[in-house]
Design brief:
With about 325 residues, the protein is α/β, with parallel strands linked by helices. It has helices at about 40-50, 65-80, 115-125, 145-150, 165-170, 180-190, 205-220, 255-265, 270-290, 295-305, and strands at about 5-10, 15-20, 30-40, 55-65, 80-85, 90-100, 105-110, 130-135, 160, 175, 220-225, 230-235, 240, 310. The chain is about 35% helix and about 25% strand. The strands form two sheets. A ten-stranded mixed β-sheet has the order 5-4-1-8-9-10-11-12-13-14, with helices on both faces. Strands 3-2-6-7 form a four-stranded mixed β-sheet. Helix 2 links the parallel strand 4 (about 55-65) and strand 5.
Length: about 325
């Protein structure tokens, strides 16, 4: 029986996805054809993927004010489990604008401050399971202090974050990290890796070089999400999983779904390469179905058979 996945979401949000009737142009009137409102945050999308595959998962994090109450209601409406802690302030709202063009336009509010004693209370109350820290930390929380708090969690801890918080999580002993290419480049700069040391050649080759350096310094496994290309994993081996061709309607949340499916598959006893293939299939399914963790387990499993795995060790 796979362990429960506990998605610690440091800065939950209410996601409002607005589909516009015309192309987005600054300074002009836009009419909305469709509105989708849902509990949001990277950890929520991750939990949706785990549940869609038949696993058990729970969202944990701080909630505040009227937005927090609305978040809890939206979560319950979906039938998703939550282990939330009340804090002062107001849970943020994130607005996603779809105009039929390229990547969606995102407008993200900052979220409430969370005091250290509130973090300690939240972490102490986490349900048992495999913990993944997914998403940005709210304002007022120093990355170093947050990293120190994560060091008290039972291993293995997975972290999907960015910037100083990701580096602090590595220093605290994170077992697995899951940056995208931009976040990996930020991490490389923070580690003092110049272009020569990070490798030359294709973006995949450069990403692999940085991942090897992260593994050498910190011992952590690294999944690098590559958008429509797929994903790269450096763990017991080194694997590139190439995504099947699919028309992306909205890719937001695809990296979260990828990581959720990967963790579920590992907990189910799958080898890491197979887990990566299932993760890439989940990310692809999310993008083609409209984003936000909207996927079906049967479709993900079917797509996994079309993912091409390459040993790049």
């Amino acid at each position: 029986m796979p362990r429960r996945i506990v998605a610690l979401t440091p800065n939950p949000a209410i996601d409002r996805t607005l589909t516009l009737g015309n192309s987005l142009r600054p300074g002009t009137l836009h009419r909305v054809r469709r509105v989708r409102e849902a509990a949001g945050g990277k950890g929520v999308n991750l939990v949706r993927a785990v549940v869609a595959l038949g696993g058990e998962a729970v969202v944990a994090g701080p909630l505040a004010g009227m937005g927090g109450r609305a978040f809890r209601e939206l979560l319950e409406r979906e039938g998703l489990a939550g282990a939330m802690t009340e804090v002062a302030g107001e849970t943020r709202q994130c607005t996603i604008l779809l105009d039929g063009g390229g990547h969606p336009t995102e407008i993200n509010e900052p979220g409430p401050d969370v005091a250290e004693d509130q973090w300690r209370a939240l972490l102490a109350a986490l349900p048992e399971g495999r913990v993944v820290v997914s998403g940005s930390i709210p304002p007022g929380t120093a990355p170093e202090r947050f990293g120190a708090l994560l060091g008290d969690l039972p291993p293995p801890v997975t972290v999907d974050g960015h910037g100083p918080a990701l580096l602090a999580a590595l220093a605290s002993g994170a077992e697995l990290i899951a940056p995208n290419l931009r976040e990996l480049a930020e991490l490389a700069a923070a580690l003092g890796l110049d272009a020569g040391r990070a490798g030359s050649g294709s973006p995949i080759e450069r990403a692999l070089a940085v991942a090897y350096e992260v593994r050498r310094r910190f011992g952590a496994r690294v999944i690098v999400t590559l958008g429509e290309t797929g994903a790269l994993l450096l763990g017991a081996g080194a694997w590139l999983a190439r995504a099947p061709a699919a028309r992306a309607v909205n890719p937001i949340g695809s990296g979260d779904c990828l990581l959720g499916a990967f963790l579920w598959a590992e907990e189910a006893g799958r080898p890491e390469a197979e887990a990566l293939a299932l993760g890439v299939a989940a990310g692809t399914e999310n993008a083609r179905r409209g984003g936000g963790g909207t996927l079906e387990g049967a479709s993900v499993r079917a797509l996994a058979g079309r993912v091409r795995l390459e040993d790049v060790s």
